[in-house]
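INFO  loader      accepted 1 record
INFO  loader      residues=208
INFO  predictor   begin
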Amino acid sequence: MGRPRTNDETVKERLVECATELLATRPQESVTVRAVATAAGTSTAAVYSLFGGKDGLIGAVRGTAVTGLFRAVTAVPTSEDPLADIYALAAAYRRWGREHSHLYSVLFGGVQSFEPSGAVGASDPIRPLVAAIDRAVKESVLDGRVTSIALSLWVTLHGLVTLELAGALDAPTAQAAFRSTIHATLRGWTTPAVFRRLRQAGPAPWTE
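INFO  predictor   done
INFO  writer      dumping tokens
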């Protein structure tokens, strides 16, 4: 039986999948080129041929995660209510994390850091959220720096999703916590007029 082709697209995809799983379940320093190649049933030469080495492979894993999350959040439609849109983006983020737990762990588990104060690229998953928050600020719905609001919301989201993926919250508790904490976070950044209106209206109408 001959050696597997080192430049085959199938081998490339399998290497990314295996690297994703290993990076999500082991310390990054223990994920070697040989370990990934063995898990994928191919040779170390394939990793160097297709990715140039470990750094290139990790970059490919990160790229897969970023692309997937970007597609999930950009699929969220825009409505006339900026708060409803932000909530919908948060729900899409959580849904993607639950459905792609290994990629989520790689993206936010140390391989990739989140920098809300940095430049937002065209394919950055944070871009739709920043745009929605910026719109809410301009329409006098939210009050604060856009990057500060984005960071506040992400901290809340990341904590919720991380706890959920770790099994610390059962499904009903996780869903209730998501609704209440996202609502509370958004209300905390609203302008006084919007805050009073929301308080008078009772529970926010936004749902996942």
